[in-house]
């Protein structure tokens, strides 16, 4: 292989890309913006690496006799290259041309899904060329300088792209630090309605609905809608969806902390779970919930069904998948908030 170090760098950059992408996906506060910057810089570094390695890749793919002998690994390599180019292209387009959708999914969602799809292929490719991982290829000063050069090139390209956004007035200049674009702020129920796992429950019969509070509490509660709907404490907060949009609204309802005070949390409690009628749930630590609201209204309108009527959680600073909709159960747990999948599975 002409450039054996390229496989090492591709694996390393790809691993950091996945890690930084995950951190950017799951954290919605400015303190984590560095993760997204790293993600963007290394994305451009991979582009430079592919240009550098491209002649070698195309040269081998053009050799017909190798296709006849190794058609399966070559087909897998071509699929890997196609997915990688598509994922990079979608991320670049999203950052500059503005929001776009295909088959009901946003461009950034396709970027995420394709990145996940190429991960096992990238691991397979690396194992197939594991001979190039020998220390004599990477444990030397040249490798460090090459890797540093890739990172520097990625930084320059990223900053150039951001300046082009500003100078040319491209839509990408207006995106939030998370990469999301504004949609439907201060519009009541008119902002987009999405669900992490495409939950679509039937409309809730509010007369039969109850909010249950159970677990490590002094007394379990079963609260009717009327006990919550009369409260109008307000939070102004931004719902930032991992699908690529954000919307700032005035949310009205009852503080989550107050409901827990009614039940009386026991000293042995370590976290709480907010659960939907669909079974969807997320856990939270007690120290992070002071600004959380159990919402019955948005923009002085009663929540619509698609936005979680009769009750949803507003969790300022969290990404949209933490804002549980159609809430009907709060459970106080003995285990920590980390006792759950990092991203919802059910």
Give the helices and strands, then pairings.
Blueprint: H1 5-26, H2 33-61, H3 64-69, H4 71-97, E1 101-102, E2 105-106, H5 107-128, H6 135-138, H7 141-168, E3 181-182, E4 210-215, E5 221-224, H8 225-229, E6 233-240, E7 245-255, H9 256-263, E8 271-276, E9 281-284, E10 293-298, E11 301-302, E12 312-314, E13 327-333
Parallel strand pairs: 3-7, 4-13
Antiparallel strand pairs: 1-2, 4-5, 6-7, 7-10, 8-9, 8-13, 10-11, 10-12
Number of domains: 2
| Coarse shape | elongated
Q: What is the rounded distance between the termini?
A: 45 Å
Count of DSSP helices?
9
Give the overall pLDDT as a whole number. Answer: 89
Q: Looking at the chains present, what oligomeric state does this protein adopt?
A: single chain
Percent strand? 15-25%
What series of H and E elements makes up the topology?
A: HHHHEEHHHEEEHEEHEEEEEE
Structural class from helices and strands?
A: alpha+beta
The biggest beta sheet reads: 6 strands, mixed
Low-confidence stretches: none
Rg from C-alpha positions?
24 Å
Overall number of strands: 13
**Can you give the helix content as a percent range?**
40-55%
């Amino acid at each position: 292989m002409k450039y054996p170090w390229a496989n090492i760098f591709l694996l390393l950059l790809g691993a950091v890309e996945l890690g930084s992408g995950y951190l950017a996906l799951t954290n919605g506060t400015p303190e984590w913006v560095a993760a997204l910057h790293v993600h963007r810089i290394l994305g451009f570094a991979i582009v430079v690496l592919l240009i550098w390695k491209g002649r070698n890749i195309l040269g081998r793919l053009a050799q017909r006799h190798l296709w006849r002998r190794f058609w399966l690994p070559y087909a897998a390599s071509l699929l890997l290259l196609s997915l990688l180019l598509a994922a990079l292209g979608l991320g670049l387009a999203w950052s500059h041309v503005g929001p776009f959708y295909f088959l009901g999914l946003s461009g950034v969602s396709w970027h995420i899904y394709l990145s996940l799809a190429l991960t096992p292929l990238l691991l397979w490719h690396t194992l197939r060329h594991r001979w190039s991982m020998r220390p004599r290829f990477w444990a030397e000063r040249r490798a460090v300088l090459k890797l540093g050069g890739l990172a520097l090139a990625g930084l320059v390209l990223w900053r150039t792209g951001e300046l082009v956004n500003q100078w040319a007035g491209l839509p990408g200049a207006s995106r939030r630090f998370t990469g999301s674009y504004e949609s439907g702020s201060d519009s009541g129920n008119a902002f987009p309605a999405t669900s992490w796992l495409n939950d679509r429950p039937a409309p809730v019969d509010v007369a039969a609905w109850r909010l249950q509070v159970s677990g490590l509490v002094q007394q379990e509660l079963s609260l009717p809608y009327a006990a919550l709907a009369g409260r109008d404490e307000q939070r102004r907060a931004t719902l930032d969806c991992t699908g690529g949009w954000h919307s700032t609204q005035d949310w009205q309802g009852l503080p989550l902390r107050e409901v827990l005070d009614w039940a009386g949390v026991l000293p042995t409690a370590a976290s709480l779970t907010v659960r939907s009628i669909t079974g969807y749930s997320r856990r939270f630590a007690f120290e992070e919930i002071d600004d959380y609201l159990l919402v019955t209204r948005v923009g002085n309108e009663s929540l619509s069904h698609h936005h979680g009527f009769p009750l949803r959680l507003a969790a300022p600073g969290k990404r949209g998948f933490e804002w549980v909709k159609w809430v009907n159960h709060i459970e106080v747990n003995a285990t920590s908030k980390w006792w759950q999948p990092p991203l919802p599975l059910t």
